[in-house]
Design brief:
The protein is of the alpha+beta class. It is built from nine helices and eleven strands. It folds into two domains: 86 residues, no CATH class; 198 residues, Nucleotide cyclase, GGDEF domain (Alpha-Beta Plaits). α5 packs antiparallel against α6. The chain is globular and about 60 Å long.
Length: 288
């Protein structure tokens, strides 16, 4: 009689290092931040060309709606951001009709758009244009939401987002805006690499950050209201974004926001902005 002897199951012979770690060790990881960092490190070791990753968890808390961790592959750093529930942008949109006139708040504002989008639209079929727009919006909006911001508008290929100041201290909002635009820049760099491998052109963009007060709320006609933001701060960040191309910079920062952060910035002097009465001190994020 023939006897069949089965060899012990060796998972390491069949699974990648990432899957082996997930099966055998991931459950013992202390904390979501370490889980994300170790998962990212294993994926990179397995050959995936990652620039970063994010993990978001809903939180059963009266003030905090979600916690998000962003992992950066180059440094291995994990950054945490909180999304607030009561009193945040979503809650204010659901306020009573008495709030339709709007409310003045202080916030870090982010304005960004793609470069040469008209040429892209004219020289490519609509399906490719929509795919490029979706990829761009995924990265800029995803970064904004990951750091507790709110996207107010998609205008053509442009984005207007805010990071409301909570508790009267503007620094956390300003730092969150800077982290979000840095994350978006990393995401777009990875996207451009993918597009290059597919024979597609890159998607350069410009972004500006400013700190100021704005009026937001439901604005429009009696039968067509739109939730939006208006005011000098909105005008300034839009004009500042228009300086990205002339100055040859991807990200510009106003002096008002630069004064509230310790993030290293490059001073570019004072510049006049069209339609803005006073010249604006302008700074740039380091390109690398």
């Amino acid at each position: 009689m023939t006897r069949v002897v089965r060899q012990p199951h060796d998972r390491s012979m069949q699974l990648s290092s990432t899957l082996s770690w997930l099966v055998d060790s991931a459950a013992e990881t202390a904390g979501a931040d370490r889980l994300l960092a170790e998962l990212g490190a294993h994926l990179v070791a397995d050959g995936l060309p990652l620039s970063g990753g994010a993990l978001t968890l809903e939180v059963p808390h009266p003030l905090i709606a979600r916690r998000t961790w962003l992992w950066l592959a180059e440094s291995g750093e994990v950054i945490e951001a909180l999304g607030f529930a009561p009193g945040g942008p979503a809650a204010m949109r659901e306020a009573s009709p008495e709030s339709d006139a709007g409310e003045t708040i202080q916030a870090a504002l982010l304005c960004a758009d793609l470069r040469d989008f008209t040429a892209l639209s004219d020289s490519n079929p609509p399906s490719q244009v929509i795919s490029a727009l979706d990829a761009w919006f995924d990265r800029i909006a995803g970064a904004v939401h990951a750091f507790g911001g709110e996207v107010l508008k998609f205008i053509g290929d442009g984005v207007l987002a805010i990071f409301p100041v909570v508790g009267g201290a503007p620094r956390p909002a300003c730092d969150a805006a800077l982290r979000a635009v840095s994350a978006a820049r990393a995401g777009m760099a990875h996207l451009d690499e993918e597009r290059g491998r597919q024979g597609l052109p890159p998607l350069p963009f410009g972004a500006a950050l400013h700190l100021g007060e704005m009026l937001w709320g439901n604005i429009g006609a009696a039968d067509r209201l739109d939730f939006t933001a208006i005011g000098p701060a909105v005008n300034l960040v839009s004009r500042l974004e228009g300086l990205c191309r002339p100055l040859g910079k991807a990200v510009l920062v106003s002096g008002a926001l630069a004064a509230q952060t310790e993030t290293p910035l490059i001073a570019l002097g004072t510049h006049a902005l069209r339609g803005i009465a006073s010249p604006c001190a302008v700074f740039a994020l380091p390109e690398n």
